[in-house]
Amino acid sequence: xxxxxxxLALVFCQLIAAHNILLSxxxxxxxxxxxxxxxxxxxxxxxxxxxxxxxxxxxADFYVISPHGKVILKxxxxxxxxxxxxxxxxGKYTYCFSNEKTNxxxxxxxxxxxxxxxxxxxxxxxxxxxxxxxxxxxLTNDVKAEQGYLVIRERTHRNTAxxxxxxxxxxxxxxxxxxxxxxxxxxYYLKRFFEVKSVV
Length: 200
Description:
The chain has 200 residues and is α+β, with helices and mostly antiparallel strands. Helix content is 40%, strand content 30%. The protein has 2 helices and 8 strands, in the order H-E-E-E-E-E-E-E-E-H. A hairpin with a 5-residue loop joins strand 4 and strand 5.
């Protein structure tokens, strides 16, 4: 039982190490993913130093090469990134981290690979788990978008109602002031009307 735990720990450490590389001075490290048309490759990464006492922020270059050898994405001098590429053809897509401009020896790159497999959700013949998951994901996103729209609509209507209530309140106050002023004027006028004037 103990040996199985040690083996699992070693496998777990191996998986973690696979997403953490040390870039050599004036060097680069490349990896590849095999994609089908319309699949999406997303790479998120962070550049740092393996020296715990080094506070300097390092930068590296990142680029993606298509199966035909053409550079389809190139970003330079990044300390971190979250880049996405959509495959336009089937084949092996290569992504590279480059330290070719500097002689830094302890440049460390931690990265994660995220991918989205393209499934045509509008194809009624697709009767697979991937289709069901993608369709459910699309419907969930539609519901989320509708809820966001309803929240904004409710907020707009509430603001309109509060503005209308405020206007009604101030109009009522104005009417009360007009009625009070009119009453005071009528009392004053009637009092003058019934005053007895003596003529000498």
